[in-house]
Design goal:
The chain is built from nine helices and four strands, in the order H-E-E-H-H-E-H-H-E-H-H-H-H. With about 180 residues, it is α+β, with helices and mostly antiparallel strands. Strands 1-2-4-3 form a four-stranded antiparallel sheet.
């Protein structure tokens, strides 16, 4: 299964889930991104278990898997054939995978995934004050149940602004310098 998958930050972000209060990626999604089978990824991890303490990786329980399927709308077709419950890797666990999977694809993908985790963390820190303000607005609305219609437009404006902040349009960066004739990138 050595097909190369074109990864975008959005594709990576869509594969990060909140399980046990931690942002994690599942073994099967990581394997697909790295261009290996889930079995081979798990074998590499099993050979290097000392690198993956419980705060880096854990196996989902049956209840967590059911909840994940329900919460994220995963079809039964996607989960059929699971012989073992999936492994979930935290950001540190994903970083540790770079020492276990040593192909150039794995290294490239790993760097991209770590950058997405870092962007998510920066975004949460940068917009923490917005979230606090939203909580304050929510509390006010609960107190003033009758005036919800009055504040509805204000809330919609806040959410529109939030969406723009959380999904900024990123223009591609221009490359600087000389380019070799046989250079692919």
């Amino acid at each position: 299964m050595t097909k190369i998958v074109k990864l975008t930050d959005e594709k990576i972000t869509n594969k990060i889930f909140l399980i046990r209060g931690k942002k994690v990626m599942l073994d099967r999604d990581l394997a697909e991104m790295y261009g290996v089978t889930t079995g081979n990824l798990n074998k590499a991890v099993k050979r290097n278990l000392l690198r993956f303490p419980k705060d880096f990786m854990f196996r989902l329980t049956k209840d967590e898997l059911r909840s994940w399927i329900f919460q994220f709308g995963t079809s039964n077709r996607e989960t059929m054939g699971l012989r073992k419950l999936p492994l979930a890797f935290t950001e540190q666990g994903v970083a540790m995978l770079s020492g276990v999977l040593k192909s150039k694809t794995a290294i490239r993908v790993n760097i991209q995934i770590i950058r997405v985790f870092a962007k998510m963390r920066e975004m949460l820190i940068a917009h923490k004050d917005i979230l606090l303000k939203l909580e304050q607005i929510e509390l006010k609305l609960l107190k003033h149940d009758g005036s919800i219609e009055k504040h509805e437009r204000e809330i919609q404006t806040v959410f529109i602004a939030l969406k723009q902040l959380l999904n900024p349009k990123i223009s591609p960066k221009k490359r600087i310098g000389y380019r070799l004739a046989n250079e692919n990138d």
